Amino acid sequence: MSTPANGMTPAQAAERAAALAEMTANALNAARTTLGEAADVTDIVDRRLRDAEHGVGVLSDQANRVRYAETGEEAEFPLRTARYAANDVQEDLRKAQGGIDEVRDRLEQSARAVAAGRDFLNELDELPGQRSEANDQLRYRLAAFDRAVHGAMAGAERTNWRLRAARENLEPLLNVPGTVHDQSRTAAVIQEAGSDATQAVDGARGGIRTLRDDFEATWSEASNISRDSSELADVLRAGMNPTKPSEQTSPAASAEDPRRAWSDGRDLSKGLNL
Residue spans with biased composition (Basic and acidic residues) (predicted)? Predict the structure, then answer.
């Protein structure tokens, strides 16, 4: 039996091709799964921001109550109300930032999975007779998917920056003394904190909506890529010649599903260039 230049027999090469196609499909399915998880978390973040939006809306009313109170002592109650509301908003924003961090983590996992799939596909192409137009098309679509994921990562970072700004905008109000000596000045601090925080929260919610729209658009393509890579694996498995025990190779036998590794906290693609 002839042996290809890579040292494998035709049967071994077919076995390796099937294994690589399977690993490509697994990696791209993992990319699709983590993308969907990122989208789900953005919905949770948006609900948290709706709560924050309601909280900052309270501040304007309390600013007016402070401004028009008959005495400084009467102004202290709406000031306390405003500070409680600001504190609750800060907590909502803190949790929203945690959610955005989770979104970013999911997107990074998706990017690593895409990189792994791309490397498996490249290795598949190096095997005799495995380079095909279908593989080239899949690689082209993977590049577009990768750009979309990294674009979403940048969007998540911008949203995180807006949330951080919203929290900082509330700090002056939280640091206002509890005793009101200058009602106009105290009211102005409340009003300004509320206005600045409202603008930042609105910007963050806009960023979340953009992220969600991007996920919707990318999800369909991710599903198609996952399907096509699975079909490629099915074709190569079906066409694989039976291999004698003496010719079996370890790569196919030791291949591990990247989804399982990542779910266990182990990343098979460490060291890959994203």
Answer: 256-274
Largest CA distance in the chain: 101
Question: What are phi and psi for residue 126, nearest 5 degrees?
Answer: -80, -15
Whose structure tokens read 């498995």? 237
CA–CA dist 127, 251 (Å, integer):
14
CA 108/CA 143 separation, integer angstroms: 15
Domain ranges of the chain: 10-240
Question: Cα torsion for 171, 196, 61, 98, to the nearest 10°?
Answer: -60
Structure tokens at 118: 């791309």
From CA 19, how far away is CA 120, in angstroms rounded?
9
SS3 of residue 240 by DSSP = coil
Question: Average pLDDT by consecutive 10-residue portion of the chain (274 residues)?
Answer: 59 84 87 90 92 90 93 92 94 94 94 91 85 83 88 92 91 89 93 92 90 82 79 73 46 46 47 41
**In whole angstroms, what is the distance from residue 138 CA to residue 25 CA?**
11
HSE-CB at 118 with a 13 A cutoff on CA atoms is: 19
H helix or E strand, kind and range, residue 58: helix 10-67
pTM: 0.78
Distance CA 92, CA 163 (A): 10
Q: Please, what is the end-to-end C-alpha distance for the chain in angstroms? A: 40
Q: What angle do CA 105, 155, 147 make, to 5 degrees?
A: 80
